[in-house]
Amino acid sequence: MAGAGVLTAAGGLATPAISQRAAARALRLVPHADVANFDPIWSSAYIARNAGLLVWDMLYGMDANLEVQRQMVEAEDVSADGLVWTFRLRPGLKFHDGEPVRADDAVASINRWAAREPMGQMIKAIENELAALDDRTFRWVLKKPYPKMLLALGKIITPCCFVMPARIAATDPFKQISEHVGSGPMRFIKDEWTPGARAVFEKFADYVPRPPLPCRAARSIGWSCRCPTWCRRCDRTAMSRWIFRTLWATSAPCSSTTCFRPSTMCGRGGRFSWR
Question: Over the chain, what is the mean pLDDT?
Answer without folding.
Answer: 77
